[in-house]
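Risk register update: the risk of archive-format incompatibility is retired. Evidence:
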Amino acid sequence: MTGMTLKDRIGVDLGRRLPLEDGIRWAAENDVRIIDAQTDIAPNALETFDDTRCGTVRDLLAETGISFGLHTLSGVNVAEISPFCRDAVDNYMKAYIDLAPRLGAKWIVVHGGYHFTACRKIRMQAAIDRLRRIGDYAAEKGVLLLLENLNWEPVLAEVNYMPVTPAECMHFFREIDSPSVRWSFTANHAHFLPGVGIANFIDAMDFSLCHEVRLADNNGSYEIHQQPGDGTIDFGAMFKKIEGMGYTGHYTNGFGSIDDMLAGREYMVARAREAGLAVD
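Archived output:
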């Protein structure tokens, strides 16, 4: 993102907080250059994006110059193996991929699903097979998928997301082996992964796969998306590590309200500046 300041490169996850059109206008009014949104249910239910609405979104993006991505719902189990349900997951992901060019979305954040402990192996393989298949479909449509590292659950939890650890992430990427499937690094998930942390997580990965970094603070103990400064992440050290890897892509805030995320950019940039980074 040549010519953009660090603040410019930190975007906002609109989720489903606003109708997409209003979200683009809000971003433009507040000098936010990058956004993503979920299009599962109201006010952005996927079925509501007819040609007219898609045209309005594309026009707004062209007018404002905002970069935009989609974000699928992590509650949809990409590791689904049951009859009918497994086909529905394929159709769900294909619908997002079909929608992306109609809206002018440049990427889609996707997930690896979840398992129920006893079925980890079969569900992990189902997730990999599906992402490989859906990755081929995305390549045909010219769409980039960004696979997110998800959050660790307590040891006794029956349900666990995939991929969580660096080893799981790299296993997914080696098995999928598609230029249309790359990495969305959620730093706060890495922060509270026992025995790992952000810096070690990065060092264990092929960081050239990273096309997005997702940000929130975290208390270091369990899954919670906190306002920067309320948790224990050292954002200065984090930016110094990531920027030092040669990363020039975008960041996306994912916590609280849109105004919380707007204010969080200022805090993060201040910490990066204190760490000695050239932020302007």
